[in-house]
Design a protein that fits this description.
By secondary structure, this protein is of the alpha/beta class. About 45% of the residues lie in helices and about 15% in strands. The chain is elongated and about 120 Å long.
Length: about 375
């Protein structure tokens, strides 16, 4: 399968093979022919029209540039024939050929950028490897919006994926600082093309968030990055099977997360504040922290006193309350704020004492 992908990759490159080197070779070759035509026409003007060589050069250049001042012109039949053959047919054709090659080169660049075959040469960028199987455009839109609002707004983004060979979806293509490269991280040339060693962050998405076999692919990518001595970037990898977490970290992943596609915020938190993503991830797990609600009315108490008194009893950490007047959930209030609550929400774990309502009331007296 990998060999087949490499063959397809090479065919794709050949179809878009008009490179900068091709342009240079074409221009150099055309200029050489143009110089020969200019010299030959000047010589013929001296022989047939008996011009001084400077007049012959003036006539050649003004005719070749299609300016045509008319102050000097060929009057003999051989001179006119030489001008028609060398300048009108040969010279102007070569000038047009150079211009055409340049525009073809520019069009080739645009096509390569659109199809994801252009090597951007980014530095200090965010490299995303793979694309979600479903709703990839929506996922990336939410991810990038969260990223831009998290403080990581000066970082260009490059996606290495096989999903968009015809170009990024319209909404993604309009986002500034976003590019993609069509390829697979399992092909060394493709991986090298996106400059992982120059990246600031690398995010490896699970190929299929429901298939534990995706972890073997992610492990392979981590191995390839390690072989390339990619040490600088912060590497975040999604792991379908929790048993593989430590293996990923041993292979160089700094952060390992479960793939929860509806919440790309977890990935953003991991990049912006490493460690905080674990708190968010635990919300989706029955293990670790528990979030308990106590429907009790509290008033006239400062938030800091509630937090301290409950911690002293090992009941857990008070993280929010329900406002008795508005019914709104208030998280992380100010320390000296006096609250009026209809319910209190605590975060605890297996080491804390599971308290009842009366226990909470007694602790807060």
């Amino acid at each position: 399968m990998i060999i087949f992908r490499q063959i397809v990759h090479q065919i794709k490159q050949d179809k878009l093979s008009f490179s900068e080197d091709d342009l240079k070779r074409s221009i150099i070759r055309a200029l050489m022919y143009l110089i020969i035509i200019i010299v030959l026409h000047v010589v013929l003007m001296v022989l047939f029209e008996h011009f001084h060589w400077t007049d012959g050069l003036w006539l050649t250049l003004t005719t070749l540039s299609t300016t045509g001042y008319g102050d000097i012109s060929a009057s003999t039949l051989p001179g006119k024939a030489a001008t028609i053959v060398l300048l009108y047919i040969g010279g102007i054709f070569l000038a047009a050929k150079i211009a055409g090659d340049y525009f073809e080169y520019r069009a080739s660049i645009r096509t390569k950028k659109m199809n994801g075959t252009w090597e951007w040469g980014m530095k200090d960028h965010l490299l995303i490897i793979n694309t979600p199987n479903q709703h990839g455009e929506t996922f990336f839109m939410k991810f990038i919006e969260q990223l831009r609002s998290s403080g990581i707004d000066d970082c260009n983004i490059e996606i290495l994926t096989e999903k968009f060979p015809q170009g990024l979806p319209s909404k993604l293509s309009k986002m500034s600082g976003l590019a993609h490269y069509t390829g697979s991280a399992l092909i060394q040339e493709d991986l090298a093309a996106v400059g992982p060693e120059q990246a600031k962050y690398i995010v490896i998405l699970a190929k299929d968030e429901q298939d534990i076999n995706s972890d073997s692919r992610t492990f392979d990518i981590l191995y390839r990055l390690k072989q390339m001595d990619v040490m600088q970037p912060l590497i975040l990898a999604e792991c379908v099977d929790d048993k593989n977490r430590e293996k990923f970290k041993e292979m160089g992943a700094d952060i390992v997360l479960r793939p929860i596609r509806a919440y790309p915020e977890m990935l953003v938190r991991g990049l912006a504040a490493p460690g905080s993503e674990q708190i968010i991830e635990n919300l989706f797990s029955a293990e670790g922290e528990h979030y308990l609600r106590y429907d009790i009315q509290l008033s006239g108490l400062q938030w800091k006193n509630i937090v301290i008194k409950l911690l002293e009893k090992d009941f857990g950490l008070a993280i929010a309350y329900i406002d008795i007047n508005t019914g709104a959930l208030i998280t992380n209030p100010l320390a000296h704020e006096e609250i009026a609550a209809s319910a209190l929400i605590l975060m605890s774990n297996d080491n804390h004492t599971i308290a009842g309502i009366q226990d909470i009331l007694n602790a807060l007296q």
